[in-house]
Amino acid sequence: MDRAQARKKAEALVAKMTIEERAGQLKYDAPAIERLGIPTYNWWNEALHGVARAGTATVFPQAIGCAAMFDEEEMQKIADVIAEEGRAKYNAFSKEEDRDIYKGLTFWSPNINIFRDPRWGRGHETYGEDPFLTARLGVAFIKGLQGDGETMKVAACAKHFAVHSGPEAIRHEFDAVVSQKDLYETYLPAFEAAVKEGGVEAVMGGYNRTNGEPSCGSKTLLKKILREDWGFEGHVVSDCWAIQDFHQFHKVTNGPKESAQMALEAGCDLNCGCTYAYIMAALQDGLVTEEQITESCIRVFTTRFLLGMFDGSEYDDIPYEVVECKEHRNLAVEAAHKGMVLLKNDGILPLDKRKIRTIGVVGPNANNRIALQGNYHGTSSRYVTVLEGIQKEVEDDCRVYYAEGSHMYKDTMENLAWKDDRISEAVITAKQCDVTIVVLGLDELMEGEEPDQSNRGQAGDKASLEFPGCQQRLLEAVTAVGKPVITVVLSGSAMDLRYADAHTNAILQAWYPGAEGGTAVADVLFGRVSPSGKLPVTFYKDTSDLPEFTDYSMKNRTYRYMEQEALYPFGFGLTYGNVKVSAAEFAEQPEKEKPVKIRCTVTNTGKWDTEEVVQVYIKDWKSKYAVRNHSLCGFRRVRVKAGESIETELTIDPRAFTIVDEEGKRYVDSNKFSLYVATTQPDARSTALTGHEAVELRVVFA
């Protein structure tokens, strides 16, 4: 069924409703209309990295960990599995007449905001700091969720539109002031791609204002840009209770009726919250029209018809047994393998069980299930922590000693104890062992959304990039023993790793790796799999390198505009091989406004088979509007065996050669460019860390 057919059916059904019934359908918890055969429907569902908050489901690595794969095909495959499980659960729930929250087919994912500042607590829900990477992975995820069948498999929702990335504490009143250049160059491209390429069915507005307008009531964002400029035909949903913020915190309206008016006029069709309960009162006061109510109702029912909710769907027979089946769990572990980023390795990794008698596993995240799952997660029937993964891997080959070492953030573990009461146990363990693996970081209780019931009041933005003091002291105490130390970090964002970089033998960034992430960590540490993830965010040295959190200008932010050297750059990640782009050339002579094809040779002179990510960055040499440094414009994951050379091709979209001027206009403003082809950025720090230079290809248009 195409959109025109679905809309026609929606129009016919909506025409049978009273105006009160139409207004009632614009709330996220839409009531049944029994006389028309319409069951109750709750629009609120989540699928950030697996079907969330509705019981058992496959828990994939957190979104930021999936982004580190730099792999569109794998991302689409993951999303297809999520949709498969979502359908299976919906089919089973519906048969039980369970139409509760988190049990529908409209998933409020993906989060394609730009992770512009590492302090933002929700950054790990995103695909990182780069608009191009975010766009490509967002489109892949949307296509995987929605499928290409006769009916839509599930409906995706791109959020939070737009210019939304903290601070969490003031999000309900905050005005994100942004230049037209930054708006169109950085904050909007992923949403534009989601609409134009991904065909995303829904868009969710943010809590904040954008240049003075509440995002869920912004005519600039929702009417002009989204619908008029981009041709969006799906429905718009508010973030939860965001419309209430109009009068409570933004103070741009005088009450709920005016807030409902502002949102409905801007084209916000569906209200997650309670403000649209005032739509009928607003209608009686002449603030909104029947036509506006009807149009929004038609849009939301068009989505329901596209999903086959009334006419049936080819997905109605997906059985419940697909939920968390072995194949899906294996895919989650594979994704964790691909997303883990090896930041340092002096040769200690991979560990050889034949040469090790004792292994110490230390740290508050070593046996922490919460740190496996990230936020907006489902429930797994089995979890494998890092400790458990290592224990299973070595079994009878080595003795594993374990010491928690510290609390996640408190100075003591036991009441009445001395400060750092578990550190001596960790030191004893390190002295006892041939090598110690220190597992540090955060979890969803420490970084996440503005505190609410689901995260028990501990989450939010980070004050700094430093580890909690108790964890930092633990690391220093263990390294002081003088034996080999490997640092494993479970976090959703960049941490200050300068001490670990200077004092430990290896660093593995494992993100929040999914329910069985401990298996994946062990596989990487012991060489069953070569790490191959790349950083989707810059790892800065500390917060002194950053502008004010509330400053939405891109100046000195992210790898494209930063003025100082990164600790670990965007796009960086080591493998157990030694892979470089040894040659690159144009497959055909580049022409202006046409795709540019690059053919390159990728060579692994190392001793390990590995996957790698070929990356292409563009530098505009002439336009005054060009980004300060360079921009990612292409990437491809490849597999290269030890001692092997392979050839691969990448196609660079003509859009890569454009700039965005101060008025937000995009066009080609130069005829002289460089394309850098490598397994990292072409910056000096990446070159120093890998020992490989990027291959430069010059483009001069006539």
CATH superfamily of the largest domain, by name, is Glycoside hydrolase, family 3, N-terminal domain
Distance between the termini: 47 Å
Q: Quick one: CATH class of the largest domain?
A: Alpha Beta
Largest sheet strand order? 9-14-13-12-10-11
Extract low-pLDDT stretches. none
Number of helices: 21
Instruction: Estimate nothing, just give the exact number of structural domains.
Output: 3
The CATH architecture term of the largest domain is: Alpha-Beta Barrel
The description of the largest β-sheet is: 6 strands, mixed
Pfam family, one: Glyco_hydro_3_C
Family: Belongs to the glycosyl hydrolase 3 family.
Keywords: Hydrolase, Signal
GO molecular function: alpha-L-arabinofuranosidase activity; xylan 1,4-beta-xylosidase activity
